[in-house]
Structure formats: structure tokens, C-alpha cells
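Archive transcription. Copying these from loose printouts into the bound notebook so they stop getting lost. Printout 1 of 2:
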Amino acid sequence: MILDVRVVSAETILTEAVDAYQSALGEHLLAAYALGSLAHGGFSALVSDIDLGLVLSDPISSRDARTIQAVADAQRAKGIELGERLSVFWGTPSTLRGELQGGRFPALDRLDLLENGRLLAGTEARAGLPRPSANELFITGAEFALEYLAGAPRRGRARRLRGWARLALRRADAVQEVRCPETLLARGVRRVTKLVLFPVRFLFTADTGQVGTNEAAVAHYLADREAPAAALVAAALSWRTAPPTDEPAATELLRDQTLPLYLYYIDDHITRLSSLGQDELTRAFTRWRERLVR
């Protein structure tokens, strides 16, 4: 099998990061896992993040967060483009079981760990960890969307939200990007594909209770005959590996279909959130909708 050299580079970044964490944490590090597209497939050197999951031994220490952050910062500071996309999730068996607070392993990432995590170092540490409920996955995704796509940070929640990505989506700019395709395109294909495909992935998780690759989420979305923006969603998936070469056509597609995609996603979630009695989140999504159509 011939490996893409960029994928090998991503694997090298993971290996170097794990080595650094083993040195910094010693026996406190039980296991390290590749997560995301480097675990379940679909990695794109153009747009994908490099997701690493760490399971530390109990008890959790007040020093752990500083150590995790310091090592991640040192790895990103090497100046390698892919290395700057390193995103680290971590916890202990007790925090992953929900018995104690701490760490950084939101629901969707915990599910990814359970279903797709690829052991890189240490010994298997997933036995007995519970699967997040469908409602937990859905609500966590809604909170994440508000924080990073709606420009509406919710007090006390930011540290718990997943960094699928350490998105590259600035909170204050996301609404403007939906409304102004020139602004969005100017910020690069990674930003474009994330802004278009995140709602598609959130809808997939809401419908199925699964993590879902971009490919699976897009296929699920396109199977819905009533869903708008099919051409844009299909194009965004292709742009993950081959950026658009016809910028005027891409601009026009984004102008015509990004807002309908977001309104479809938001209206879907308003209905679901209301049915779950999530009144605060329902109001936040309603305000988000109003900002988009203002």
C-alpha cells in the first residue's frame, strides 16, 4: 500500500506528540489514541485536524490541564502547518465515566474514542466507559454550534465544548461569513468546508446518534429530498481534497445556498430543542436565526 506523504506527516505529528506526553506525564499516561479522521478515515491534509485523545490515571491532578496545554503549545509552536492543527482531548477513567468533573472530552469525542479510537501508546483503557446518550450528543452539538458558529458564547460552557477542530471559525465573524461569501472564501478552503459541513454533521448526529464521517454525513443529508443546498453540500465535500478553481462560481454557490442551509439546520434544532424542554437553547437558536435573516 502506498501512503500519501501528507498522511504520513500527520502520523509523524501524532507520534511526536505522544512521545512528548509520555515524557511529561510518565506513568500517569495510561493510553493515547488517534481520533477523528486519522482514526475513522477521510483525513484531508488541506482541511483536517489532528485529533489526539489521552487517558490519564486517576486521580486527576490540578497540574494536569497545565501540562496538557504546555505540551500541545510546544508541539504547535514547531511551525509545521499540520502541527498547528493538533487538538488534544483528555480525561481520566473517573471523568470519562462522569463520576468526577475535569479534563476535556466532550460527548461526541468520547463517542469517537469508544467507536473509532486507534491505540497509539499505552494499554487499552476504554473498558467500562459508558456511551454518551443521544440527547447528550445532540445538546453538546447545539452548544458547540452556538459557541463557534452563532457567535453566542454561553457563560460557563466554553471549556466543555469540543474543539473538533480548533475550528478556525472566529465567533464574531461566523454570522457575517454565512451572509458574505466573499469574506468566507478569502479565509481559505479549510474555513469554507468547516462552515458548510458542520451543520450537516450536526444533523447527522441528531438523526442517528453517531459520530459520522464527513462522507457519511453528506450522504445522509443528500438522501433527504427536502433538504436545501444539496449542490453546496456536495461541493464542500469535494473541496476538502480539491479546492474550488472557479472562484466566481463558488462565490455564487455560497451566496445562493449557505443561508438556506443554515436556516434549515437551525429550524430543525429549534424544533428538537423545544421538544426536549431546552428552553434556553431554543431561545438562543431563535436569536441566531434572527441575526442571520436581519
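Printout 2 of 2:
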Amino acid sequence: MKRRFWILMIAMLVLSMALAACSTGGTQKVRVATDATWPPFEMVDEATKEIVGFDIDLMNAVAEKGGFEVEFVNVGFDPLLAGMASCQYDAAISAITITEERKADFGFSGPYFSAGQVVAVQVDNMDITGKDTLSGKVVGAQIGTTGAIEIEGIAGATLKTYDDVGLAYQDLINGQVDAVVADDGLAQGYVAKNSESLKIVGEPFTDESYGIAVCKTNTELLEKINTGLNAVISEGLLDELTLKWLVGEG
């Protein structure tokens, strides 16, 4: 009798564990890193303290179409790249330019946004007219970005890096740096908010594409992300997000 009782109890335990697994394991939870200092792509809403932006809306839509859930982790851009290289995070979305060097460290989804580096200066600056006039100048950029990489390649230019790109623009307003180099979408936002102090000079001097970074060993997740991304692109969501976050008509 006791033996039968314990067999029954074990069977019930196994069944309950199976049911629990079915109820909680049906949807994959994905940890997605982002540097929420890069408006309008990712930023912290001061009222709600939640991370919002173009990339956040996009990633949530990709997750819905791809069949997984997202948990965002706010982290600086440089440690974000290092964390992705060691698979500390499952994925990352943070206006990340797809480059061959980064492809060596982690996987990328297909591209979802085109960008280019631009130069911002004080509104009364007539000496700097674009990338080719940055020699001999102190130029700010966020650490780890393609903007910082571009400045390093300019002979005679001195790079000053920042963990938060907003601080670079503040230093530019205060005259602590001569110029700031960053992605055109972000630069336009900062200049629009400080039009009495800042302006963009010259044309974008790089041709870049943003992608969603994925832990290199997680090919299954990359497939899900690409499936979701292709679905939201085909449904026209990128145009809606552009109107909402970049044009301001959403």
C-alpha cells in the first residue's frame, strides 16, 4: 500500500512539473541590451522611467512576430559591445552599425535603418565645414561608436570620448570641444533642441546600416529575430516608427 502511494505521489509530481514547464516555457524570454542615452532611438522617459524609443518599439514588434518576449537591460554602449561579444546578453538593439569588425564578435540581423556620421558645431563657427576641416580640432563622440572610430582616423584631430553622447553636446554648447560627430538622426535631434547654439555642417560622410546584434552561438534566436524583422518591415512598421520618432508626426 505504501509503495503504491509513493508511486502515485511521484507520478503526480512529474505531471505537475510537466504542466508547469508547458505553462511557463512556451515563450522564450530574451535579455536585450540597449544604451538608453541615444534619442530618439533609445532613451529613458523622465515621467515613467521606462526605456522608450524607435528601437524599443521595433524590438517589441519583432519579438511579437518572432514568438518571444523581451527583457531590456540598460547598459553603456562600450560595455554593451563587450557583453555581446561574451554572450552576457542574448541580443542588443541600440542604433548599432553593422561592421565587419563587430561581425567577428557577434551576429547581426538584417539591416533596418540607414544612417551616416555628421559634424555638429556651435552656430557661429565658420571654420569647420565638415569632416575635412576637423584637423587640429578637439572633437567629441560617444565611446565605442563609429563616430569615435571616424575621428580617430582624421589626422591632427583630437578625440574626446563620452559615456553619454548628451554630455558631448553639452560640452560643445559650453565650448569645451570644437565639434561633435555622431549619427545624423541623433545629431539632428540635439541640434533641433539647441538650434540657438548648434548647427550641423556638411553632409553625412559615412553610409551605415543598423542591425540587431545577437549572441554569436544563438543561431535559433537570430532566425526568430530575422523572421520577426522581415514581418514588421513587410507590414510597413518602419515607416510608422520613422513618423513617430524621427519626424514627430506619430
